[in-house]
Here is the input.
Amino acid sequence: MFKLRQSSVRRRYSEFEWFRDRLERETSRVTIPPLPGKVFTNRFDDQVIEDRREGLERFLQIVAGHPLLQTGSKVLVAFIQDPAFSKEKYSY
Here is the structure.
């Protein structure tokens, strides 16, 4: 399934929102966890940024570790491992 043991990619929060929505559309058998909330104040504060990054990483660890998503998702591996990921490739 995953080609790399570890990966590091940059994603915008809006891409995480799209990704979560896509996972929900792909399967009704898995409850997709919520994303950490949007930040409207002090969003450039180092601690706020780090807290959000940690929350998004926890989200990814949960969905990447789910066996049904590992075998059934068309977008999971690309979102996590492809630095050139584009959601336009997965618009269906």
Observations:
- The chain has a mean pLDDT of 87.
